[in-house]
Write a structure and sequence with these properties.
The chain has helices at 2-17, 48-73, 77-88, 90-97, 107-126, 132-152, and strands at residues 42-43, 153-154. The chain is mainly alpha-helical. The structure holds heme C (HEC).
Length: 158
């Protein structure tokens, strides 16, 4: 009985998975890049220490984004501003670059990094408005800058 029901169910899942249910565009469903794209990212060669440092900064970036969202949910705009400035702004950039062999990153990587820090400074500036209609579009730009770089670069050729 169960096995009989499983066959149409499997067929239906296969249909869903093949994308019949959702219209897809070049940029994926609802603007999200599909997971299984060919990997065309440019590798940046770093030694083990610099790689470790880069990873620590990235993990902290994600944690900072989480903490900013938590602060916004608490309506603590001052904390949200401080976190954004300290951990995502130009201050963070100088700190990270001092430890990550900046000469090993291509100029275009630096441009993406600077665009990201600039977006973060604008987000920090929007925080005192206490208005999510002003804050969220700037937050979106920061996250777009994270995504833009992740689509272009990876740390090794594997
Ligand atoms: C200028 C480029 C750039 C920007 C901007 C950037 N990243 Fe990254 N990030 C990278 C690269 C390169 C990697 C390594 C990817 C790889 O080797 O597969 C990475 C890896 C990561 C990882 C995985 C770390 C691990 O455990 O290996 C996380 C999480 C991450 N980034 C979060 C963020 C967040 C959040 C932001 C924005 C607030 C951000 N990144 C902005 C370049 C960037």
């Amino acid at each position: 009985m169960i096995r009989q029901a499983a066959v149409p169910l499997l067929f239906f899942s296969a249909l869903l998975a093949s994308g019949c249910a959702e219209p897809k565009t070049a940029s994926g469903i609802n603007g999200v890049t599909p997971v299984h794209l060919p990997d065309v990212r440019t590798p940046v060669q770093l030694d083990a220490d610099a790689r470790q440092e880069h990873r620590a900064v990235m993990l902290q970036h994600l944690e900072t984004v989480q903490a900013i969202v938590a602060a916004l949910a608490d309506e603590d705009y001052r904390l949200a501003q401080g976190l954004t400035e300290t951990h995502l702004g130009f201050f963070m950039h100088r700190h990270a670059m001092a430890r990550q062999q900046p000469e090993n990153f291509p100029p275009a990587y630096h441009d993406l990094a600077m665009a990201h820090h600039e977006a973060a400074e604008k987000l920090a500036d929007a925080m005192p408005s206490r208005d999510l209609k002003q804050i969220l579009p700037e937050f979106n730009k920061v996250l777009k800058a994270c995504v833009a770089c992740h689509l272009e670069y990876k740390l090794r050729s594997s």
